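Researcher: Let's try something more involved. This one mixes different molecule types, so please make sure each is placed in the same coordinate frame as the others.
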Amino acid sequence: MVEVRDLHFSWNTHIIFDGIDIAVQRGKITAIMGPSGTGKTTLLRLIGGQLRPDSGTILVEGEDVPKLSRQELYKLRRQIGMLFQSGALFSDLSVFENVAFPLREHTSLPESMLHDLVLMKLQAVGLRGAHELMPSELSGGMARRVALARALALDPSLIMFDEPFAGQDPISMGVLVQLIRLLNDALNMTTIIVSHDVQETISIADYIYIVADARIVGSGTPEVLMKNGTAWVQQFMQGLPDGPVPFHYPAQDYSADLWGTAL
Amino acid sequence: MLIKRVQLLGRSGLGFLDNIGQAAIILYHAIVGKPDWAHGISRLTQQLYSVGVLSLIIIVLSSLFIGMVLALQGYTILVKFGAEHALGQLIALSLVRELGPVVGALLFAGRAGSALTAEIGLMKTTEQLSSMEMMGIDPLRRIIGPRFWAGQISLPLLTLIFNCVAVLGGYMVGVEWLGVDGGAFWANMQSAVDFHADVVNGIIKSVVFGSVVTWIAVYQGLDCPPTSEGIGRATTRTVVYSSLAILGLDFFLTAVMFGDT
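Model: All components are placed in one shared frame. Result:
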């Protein structure tokens, strides 16, 4: 469904990806994990064609995303749903209109059918009763569920989640975890999740890639990674404070910093 | 040291050219982008309301006071030469040729231009524009196009309203308060103001100013760093750049329109 081959990407002089390979299987939930600032969100933007790589191939449904024309890219994106970390709901539109937005833009459905479709999408995320509310009246978890309903509006074959669990209370997090798994299976979609919430992600992911230092440092099913990963992977998966990623930021000798000279 | 300075100069030059290029692309998409007639009219109407109708109060109040001050100042000078009957002519020509288009555009930049930049900047910061792109919807057509056209349509209409209200303010002070003859006030105005040379040229100015202010405002909104500080700076830049552009272009347009008379 999605294939990334030998991807190189840099921002100014900073290398973000130095030749990574990822394969996302159709119908599965694939998680991209790693510490903050390793370029996980950038990877989603590269897959969605919002950024262009320095070199490498990004295939979505067999189409090489960086080589697509503007028109072809916009056409491909209609098959991709994306849930942003902030939800990115349109603040001047109600919940109903937010979900109706992509349908109004891309289809000419009669108003009655559009009304029913929107309510069905909202029902799927448990928020049919909130269709008249404005985004400012929603909690963070509700906003993300509305954004999920909006991302599902055009029945995409691929859906990408950018940090769906960040900043959620346990109930909202449980709801989102369950929704992602259920919707993926019920709608026969392919899902990519970018997250650093280990427990929630391994509970639903079929396959995991761990990104660090501009490359893939580990990949496999959650069970394999939890048991047989490298020291780096073990530190990340178990949340250990020290290890290959040191607790201390690199600095000169401690005593030299305190007293001016090394003892 | 010297090489660093040359590098800095080169980087600034490239950055400037990059900005101009991006702004030109935005303008191209806003103007040439295929209009979507199914939804276009309602979006344009919405923007005409927020850009134009909501600017109406500041335009009406400002123009009323400007017309009143113009009458007061004009009268004190004209009465020394016994020419106070030419007050209507003075007010009308000052307004339709210069004050209407220029002051109207400056007020428009402060009210609608800054609001446009802040709105688009906030949409960028909260990833609304990115989400639109990911839905396969071009934000330049969906967001920028209607705002651009609304600015271009609104400002000439606001300028006409500015001129009418300011003349009314001048009438109230000149005729009703200072006692200038009402017949002479209107008759001199009518004979002195040429519709094509004065009124139409003034409107052409306001169309140009409307395009430039809206262009600057939407570009600054799209280009701002996605932070609250970035939005604040972009809003300030919109007002400053728009004001300078209006005054500079006014000189150029005045020279072209009235330079040989």
